[in-house]
Amino acid sequence: MPANLTPQYRAAGARFKSAHTLEERKAALEEMLATIPKHKGTEKMQADLKRRLARLRHDEETRTSRHGHAIKVDPEGAAQVVLLGPPNCGKSSLLAALTHAEPPIADYPFTTTRPQPGMMIFEDVQIQLVDLPPVAAQHMDTWLPGLVRGADAALLLVDPTSSDLPEDVEVVRERLAGARAPLVGTLPEEVDPRDNPLPTLMVITKADRAREEDLKVLEELYGSQYPLLRISVATHAGLEALKVAVWRLLQMVRVYSKPPGKPVDRSQPFVLPQGYTVADLAERVHREIAEKMQFARVWGGKLEGQRVARDFELRDRDVVELHV
To answer: Which of 170, 181, 282, 293 maximizes the CB count within 10 A of its CB?
Structure first.
């Protein structure tokens, strides 16, 4: 379904791109969210706007914090994905296995006390993973929910060998929901405007050490609420499948720019939310190109350089040639 974006939305988008202050960017995003047409064709765009607005609000919280407890991790790569879970669920080990980061790893609880970022490579895209301190009934860092609200997605790690299951996982879910950052398998159609639901993949760690019956109980318990994946850092089982699952969770597409008369540039794809159009890509390339673009040609799927309209919805791995 085409997005059919309104002139008011596009004007707010232009103000966002030209904004110089956090307050100006926040006001423009709020207007974009208020004026975007509300239908199925814009659901993913609405979710992207909410995540960007949450990230700005977290920046605002960081700047105005009086007690020095707010902590920020600048987003890098195509998206920012936070690693969440109870103590000793394997977050730091997973971060080390998927990135070049070297977080402290130990068998005792609360080894991680500060955010630990690392870059995960998925094919030709880099995705930032951020290992966060564990969440438990007796402790959750005051700054943690703000950072979670600013992320694009989450991995909720579960240790099937834990004697505290499922209570320890429920504590994580309940405490983040209480902090206006509910972890959801799919974004709900109706949501409290104060909430920032975060698309979440449940990762069952230490699958090599768990009993099959315990794994099946977890899958039966949470399979209707989250996409699930079994992994083992020790044996590397499921790690490549996890990268694919993270990419699918993010609901983004890679688009390659092809200058007219020149070969396609596949070195640095533009990464956009699903549902974005040729016009949205043109704005990402350059505002002047977006204003002057006459038409575009697309290669991908069944298209072999066909001319398309500005509201043509882009798909993963499309090659686009913009004409001004």
So the answer is: 181
